[in-house]
Design a protein that fits this description.
The chain has 90 residues and is α+β, with helices and mostly antiparallel strands. It contains 1 helix and 2 strands; from the N terminus they run αββ. Strands 1-2 form a two-stranded antiparallel ribbon. The chain is rod-shaped.
Protein backbone atom coordinates (compact mmCIF):
# COMPACT_ATOMS: atom_id res chain seq x y z
CA UNK A 1 0.00 0.00 0.00
CA UNK A 2 1.42 3.38 -0.98
CA UNK A 3 1.14 6.62 0.92
CA UNK A 4 -1.11 8.20 -1.75
CA UNK A 5 -3.70 5.40 -1.58
CA UNK A 6 -6.18 5.59 1.30
CA UNK A 7 -7.29 2.33 2.79
CA UNK A 8 -10.61 3.63 4.09
CA UNK A 9 -11.99 5.20 0.88
CA UNK A 10 -11.51 3.86 -2.59
CA UNK A 11 -11.30 6.16 -5.62
CA UNK A 12 -15.01 6.61 -6.40
CA UNK A 13 -16.23 6.76 -2.80
CA UNK A 14 -13.81 9.50 -1.80
CA UNK A 15 -14.61 11.49 -4.96
CA UNK A 16 -18.33 11.29 -4.24
CA UNK A 17 -17.80 12.33 -0.62
CA UNK A 18 -15.67 15.28 -1.71
CA UNK A 19 -18.33 16.33 -4.21
CA UNK A 20 -21.07 16.17 -1.56
CA UNK A 21 -18.97 18.16 0.91
CA UNK A 22 -18.12 20.75 -1.75
CA UNK A 23 -21.81 21.09 -2.63
CA UNK A 24 -22.73 21.55 1.04
CA UNK A 25 -20.06 24.17 1.56
CA UNK A 26 -21.10 26.02 -1.62
CA UNK A 27 -24.77 25.93 -0.59
CA UNK A 28 -23.89 27.22 2.88
CA UNK A 29 -21.83 30.06 1.40
CA UNK A 30 -24.59 31.05 -1.03
CA UNK A 31 -27.11 30.92 1.81
CA UNK A 32 -24.88 33.14 3.94
CA UNK A 33 -24.59 35.69 1.12
CA UNK A 34 -28.37 35.71 0.62
CA UNK A 35 -29.02 36.15 4.35
CA UNK A 36 -26.45 38.97 4.56
CA UNK A 37 -28.05 40.73 1.59
CA UNK A 38 -31.49 40.41 3.19
CA UNK A 39 -30.25 41.81 6.51
CA UNK A 40 -28.52 44.76 4.84
CA UNK A 41 -31.62 45.49 2.75
CA UNK A 42 -33.80 45.41 5.87
CA UNK A 43 -31.40 47.77 7.63
CA UNK A 44 -31.55 50.18 4.69
CA UNK A 45 -35.36 50.08 4.78
CA UNK A 46 -35.33 50.80 8.52
CA UNK A 47 -33.00 53.77 8.04
CA UNK A 48 -35.16 55.11 5.21
CA UNK A 49 -38.30 54.76 7.35
CA UNK A 50 -36.67 56.54 10.30
CA UNK A 51 -35.55 59.34 7.98
CA UNK A 52 -39.04 59.67 6.49
CA UNK A 53 -40.61 59.76 9.95
CA UNK A 54 -38.14 62.42 11.03
CA UNK A 55 -38.85 64.52 7.96
CA UNK A 56 -42.61 64.17 8.46
CA UNK A 57 -42.27 65.11 12.12
CA UNK A 58 -40.24 68.18 11.24
CA UNK A 59 -42.80 69.16 8.61
CA UNK A 60 -45.64 68.86 11.12
CA UNK A 61 -43.61 70.81 13.69
CA UNK A 62 -43.07 73.64 11.21
CA UNK A 63 -46.78 73.64 10.27
CA UNK A 64 -47.95 73.73 13.88
CA UNK A 65 -45.35 76.20 15.10
CA UNK A 66 -45.64 78.47 12.09
CA UNK A 67 -43.20 81.10 11.04
CA UNK A 68 -42.36 83.75 13.56
CA UNK A 69 -41.89 87.31 12.45
CA UNK A 70 -39.16 88.65 14.63
CA UNK A 71 -39.56 92.35 15.08
CA UNK A 72 -37.03 93.79 17.41
CA UNK A 73 -38.02 97.08 19.01
CA UNK A 74 -35.84 100.02 18.22
CA UNK A 75 -34.57 98.85 14.83
CA UNK A 76 -34.64 101.60 12.25
CA UNK A 77 -34.91 100.93 8.53
CA UNK A 78 -33.89 103.56 5.99
CA UNK A 79 -35.78 103.65 2.69
CA UNK A 80 -35.50 105.87 -0.29
CA UNK A 81 -38.67 107.87 -0.72
CA UNK A 82 -39.89 110.37 -3.33
CA UNK A 83 -38.30 113.24 -1.41
CA UNK A 84 -35.14 111.52 -0.22
CA UNK A 85 -34.44 109.08 2.53
CA UNK A 86 -37.02 108.19 5.18
CA UNK A 87 -36.41 106.26 8.38
CA UNK A 88 -39.07 103.92 9.74
CA UNK A 89 -39.21 101.52 12.63
CA UNK A 90 -39.17 97.90 11.61
Amino acid sequence: MTSTHHALFTGQASGALRAVLAALIAAAFIGLVVVLAAVLTAAAFVLAAVGALGAAGYWVYRKVRGRRNRKDDGVLVARRGPRGWTVDEA
